[in-house]
């Protein structure tokens, strides 16, 4: 009887207990005051770090999204607002936040190698805060952002699902912070460029929110340019100029090619691909074997620094992970990076097609993680025992939608957004040593958007002598800052 009475009492008190728990765990936003000092800027700004709850249709919380914002005090009326995120899928915004755009930097030397420990963050005099307010967004499942209650994670982990939840957050943030009269920019990196382009289209259609510009860093919109699947010859052609750049950087080319500048070499590689290599791949068996085939093997070998027998064995088609393992095969166990092929490491298992170790990712992960976690607590006042998910696999399997058996392509989304708003401008940053999203693949995508000539002129392309995260290379970060500042000003 006593148990039954206690059970009834719990039922009666449940609504109040739930309300108390909800109030105690309500999303918090911490505000702090700071000072920014750049080369030609000195001003105060405030940071906002915390969560916004995304409401479901019934008013319950479906997720909480963590963000970090930096807002200049007394901004000019036309000061831009940039909402930034990285990609993955499964990546937090740490890379753009602590690598280039934010007011604090992960500690690297001028080349991009970690400084000595401890890895606390450093001031960033070239922060984009100098010319734009900044909001860094961690999509659900990354950073501190999590689904709430019984909301299944599948509601957020897919191309369309991700766009809808991030768009909901952006609309909420802009509305809650009175930013509808601001110039809005979206900045994404890697899969974040896929998201940025999809958001531009979705925000226009669903919320009537029209961004002024898109910043696409290490872009991927059309995934058939990257997927080394049987029957898809396009990546072999589009990666070749980046292979050539990588071989040039590591001194693997003959004297004539080695003495060229990186711009001259990549121009030559583009021409070779367009005139000879791509038509040969499309010829298939009709080209094999023969004198012309042997000549192509010789030229590909010369262009990308691999022995002829490697090119012949792979039927003129060196795949990405074979290339990173094979280029420096003369140095026992040495492999080059995929995110940044300037980096070298050791593949201890000796596998020639292993994609589970990237020396360029291994070199930067710890630095960014330490710097970000330190910055959140020491400078922004965020206290949480929850692990901050830097780059997680928990968002997988990712729902690629109708393209699950093919190749997602957000190129049409960009075309729709630009034709719907002819004032929309696009800035694209490419790294020469990026073997994750090669620059020639981005050029191919941009050249196949089907835009009229006057809208094609709204797209600006820039190039940097580093990799996927080109900003860890100090000269490239400085150039990116100057290029972006000039673009925003225009």
Characterise the protein shown here.
The chain is of the alpha/beta class and 490 residues long. The protein contains 15 helices and 14 strands. The chain folds into two domains: 27-224 and 364-489, 3-Layer(aba) Sandwich (Rossmann fold); 230-356, no CATH class. It has helices at residues 2-24, 94-101, 159-176, 191-207, 234-249, 255-258, 262-283, 291-304, 308-313, 320-326, 359-378, 411-420, 439-447, 453-456, 474-489; strands at 29-37, 42-55, 61-72, 81-85, 104-105, 122-123, 133-138, 146-147, 184-190, 213-219, 334-336, 344-346, 425-431, 459-464. Strands 1, 2, 3, 4, 7, 8, 9, 10, 13 and 14 form a ten-stranded mixed beta sheet that branches. A two-stranded antiparallel ribbon has the order 5-6. A two-stranded antiparallel ribbon has the order 11-12. The longest helix has 23 residues, at 2-24. Residues 1-24 have low confidence and may be disordered.
CATH topology of the largest domain: Rossmann fold
| Helix count from the secondary structure assignment | 15
* CATH architecture descriptor name of the largest domain: 3-Layer(aba) Sandwich
**Helix/strand order, N-terminal first:** HEEEEHEEEEHEHEHHHHHHEEHHEHHEH
